[in-house]
């Protein structure tokens, strides 16, 4: 099987309005893919469905060989902890935790030892070029630094696929470009699949494949 993610005939309705309309998509192992489209096109809703954060009204999703549409909340939570990483536009860092502890946070439910958590955390914060900021609180970091911490947090569980929702949306163009180059390097070095949702056309040059979305459909 060459595809880590396969979705067929996805529909998502809110209050009788179809936000995602009969979408089928597949993502290969190790692929760096981008879904681009204007605001309101349904791309974030689609990303939430594909990652198991939301359930479709109709359709089927298979992630790393597991059909996730039939899983209950506990099953989805376990799948997300084991196989999926998330990067969001607004970082979602906990302001009262230092950078290193924010990175380690996803490991707590997995019963990982304190030593192993710190080992993985330090490896990743060094990979992000932020070893000197390990003990800084989020309020002491720039936007680009916050996003690097969020990326490290997304990688701490060694996921098979990382979903990123507008990862450069709150960054200036130079910092955003650096973040995308970092994601692409991680994709190459770790053979990790990425699916990025954006309205930033500048990201497309880094993509292995680009999907365009408009009015709830892939073009």
Average of per-residue pLDDT values: 90
Largest sheet: 6 strands, mixed
CATH class equals Alpha Beta
Radius of gyration: 17 Å
CATH homologous superfamily descriptor: P-loop containing nucleotide triphosphate hydrolases
What tags apply to this protein structure?
Rossmann fold, 219 residues, globular, 4-stranded antiparallel β-sheet, single chain, 32% helix, alpha/beta, 6-stranded mixed β-sheet
Can you characterise this structure?
32% of the residues lie in helices and 28% in strands. With 219 residues, the protein is an alpha/beta fold. Strand 9 (209-214) and strand 10 (217-218) form a beta hairpin. Helix 4 (114-127) crosses helix 5 (143-155) and helix 5 packs parallel to helix 6. It is globular, with a radius of gyration of 17 Å. The mean pLDDT is 90.
Brief sketch in words of this structure:
By secondary structure, the protein is of the alpha/beta class. 32% of the residues lie in helices and 28% in strands.
Write the layout of secondary structure elements.
Layout: E1 3-14, E2 17-28, E3 32-36, H1 43-50, E4 58-63, E5 66-67, H2 73-83, E6 84-88, H3 99-104, H4 114-127, H5 143-155, E7 161-165, H6 173-190, E8 193-198, E9 209-214, E10 217-218
Parallel strand pairs: 3-8, 3-9, 6-7, 7-8
Antiparallel strand pairs: 1-2, 1-4, 4-5, 9-10
Helix pairs in contact: 4-5, 5-6
């Amino acid at each position: 099987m060459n595809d880590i993610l396969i979705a067929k005939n996805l529909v998502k309705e809110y209050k009788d309005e179809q936000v995602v309309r009969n979408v089928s998509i597949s993502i290969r192992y190790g692929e760096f893919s981008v879904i681009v489209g204007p605001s309101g096109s349904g791309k974030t809703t689609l990303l939430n469905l594909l990652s198991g954060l939301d359930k479709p009204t109709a359709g089927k999703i298979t992630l790393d060989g597991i059909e996730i549409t039939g899983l209950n909340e506990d099953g989805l939570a376990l799948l997300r902890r084991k196989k999926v990483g998330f990067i969001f536009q607004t970082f979602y860092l906990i302001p009262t935790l230092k950078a290193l502890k924010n990175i380690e946070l996803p490991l707590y439910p997995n019963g990982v030892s304190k030593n192993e958590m710190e080992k993985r955390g330090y490896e990743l914060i060094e990979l992000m070029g932020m070893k000197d900021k390990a003990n800084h609180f989020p309020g002491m970091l720039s936007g680009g630094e916050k996003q690097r911490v969020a990326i490290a947090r997304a990688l701490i569980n060694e996921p098979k696929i990382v979903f990123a929702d507008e990862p450069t949306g709150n960054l200036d163009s130079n910092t955003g470009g650096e973040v995308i180059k970092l994601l692409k390097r991680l994709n190459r070095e770790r053979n990790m699949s990425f699916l990025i949702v954006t309205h930033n056309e500048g990201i497309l040059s880094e993509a292995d494949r680009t999907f365009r979305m408009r009015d709830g459909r892939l073009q």
